[in-house]
Structures are given as C-alpha cells and as structure tokens.
Design a protein that fits this description.
With about 220 residues, the chain is an alpha+beta fold. It has helices at about 5-15, 35-50, 65-75, 135-145, 150-165, 180-185, 205-215; strands at about 90, 100-110, 115-125, 130-135, 150, 170-180, 195-200. It has seven helices and seven strands. It is globular and about 65 Å long.
Length: about 220
C-alpha cells in the first residue's frame, strides 16, 4: 500500500497536475512583497546553512536576499494578479480574416514539482472575429502565466483561455515545446528530450486549420 509521501513523490516525479488552476491559498496576498522577501530570505539562509555553506563569505552574503527578491519580483511574479498585462484589443478595421501566428515566443517558467526551470518556446495563433490584439501583448500573456510554479499542460491552457477571453473568440491555439530541467538535470537526466503540449480552440479543432498552424510553426525549436 502506497503511503502519502510516496503518493506525493509519484505525482511530482511524473509531473502530474492536480488542478487546472495554480493552487493558491486565499491569503496569498495578505502580506506585502517586501514582507514576503524578508520571510523567504530567512528560509533560504536556513537552507544554505543546513547544507553547510559559509554565509560569511563575500560571495554568499547576499545570496538569501537575492534569491528572495528573484522569487517574489521575477520568476514567480506572475502569481500576483496586479501584474497581469492589460490585453488591449482593437477593431479589425483592415478585415484580416486569416490565421495570425506568433511563433517562437521565448518561455521561461518553473516546474512546480522541483522548482527547476522550464525553458522553451510558445507558438500562439488566433483567427479574428472582429477584434485583434497587439503582438507584444501575446508575448506578455505568455510571460505572465509562465512566471509561476507551473506544469506545462496548465500553462498552455491558461494562455489560450486568456486570449479567448480578450479577443472574444474560441479560435485560439497554443503549442509549447520546452525542456524541463527536472528531467534533463536530475532523475532520469535525459538532456535531449523536450515536452510538447497543445491546446486548440474553436476553428483550430478542424483538422485542416490545425494542420495549417502546425505547418507554420514546424516544431523546429532550438534551445
């Protein structure tokens, strides 16, 4: 019979998500970013001391504070809804009715199971039903949802759902091709493998439209 700790390890080692939303507590923003940094700084300091590191060394003195600021302000900054990019849309006055593809969007995220990097590319497309969105906003949406402890399947879905809501259409698709350092640098240590996930909405579920999108991106991502 598998115990609770073994079950949790099974979920993490097999990169299984238990929720379609990022699992945040209700009091996630009850304290300020500055307070979070101070708390995390002490925790990182304790981890390093426990590992045997000498924090009086000039190279290590500032590490706990640097890591804490990085967690709160950078790599997990997408947890904070105040940082959500405003997805401004505009009338499609030039009546462009074909597929728009923004491919090879650089993606840096963090695996929520081992807190190791996910590095890859996102390919995003939509077909306008009367509204268009700025190209840079597509990049910013990818970045926002990436800056969280994540699983790749959820991230792919969140990008599509956000664009569907902003554009008022189901006709949105996203493919992500990424390397997970929790696979590449530990565990099985397979440095060659990458993970591909996809989410297709509306017209992109049609075989011909889906094939056209995949032909555009060709999945020749290089890392």
């Amino acid at each position: 019979m598998i115990n609770n700790e073994e079950f949790q390890d099974e979920i993490g080692n097999n990169h299984i998500s238990t929720s379609a939303k990022n699992p945040l507590r209700e009091d996630a923003f009850a304290i300020s970013d500055e307070e979070k940094i101070e708390k995390i700084k002490k925790d990182v300091e304790n981890i390093l001391i426990t590992l045997g590191m000498d924090l009086t060394d000039d190279s290590m003195k500032g590490t706990p504070n640097r890591v804490a600021k990085m967690f709160v302000k950078e790599i997990f900054g997408g947890l904070n809804p105040t940082k959500k990019p405003k997805a401004s849309t505009f009338d499609n006055n030039y009546k462009y009715g074909e597929m728009l593809v923004e491919k090879n969007i650089t993606l840096y995220s963090t695996c929520e199971h081992h807190l190791l990097p996910i590095i890859g590319r996102a390919h995003v497309a939509y077909i306008s039903n009367g509204r268009v969105i700025g190209l840079s906003k597509m990049n910013r949406i990818v970045e926002y949802y990436s800056k969280r402890p994540q699983v790749q399947e959820r991230l792919t879905m969140q990008i599509v759902q956000e664009l569907q809501m902003a554009l008022g259409t189901e006709d949105v698709a996203c493919v992500i091709d990424a390397k997970h350092l929790c696979v590449n640098s530990r565990g099985i240590s397979d440095i060659e493998s990458s993970t591909v996930t996809s989410e297709f909405g509306g017209k992109f579920k049609d075989v011909q439209t889906k094939r056209e999108f995949l032909d555009y991106i060709k999945l020749e991502t290089k890392f």
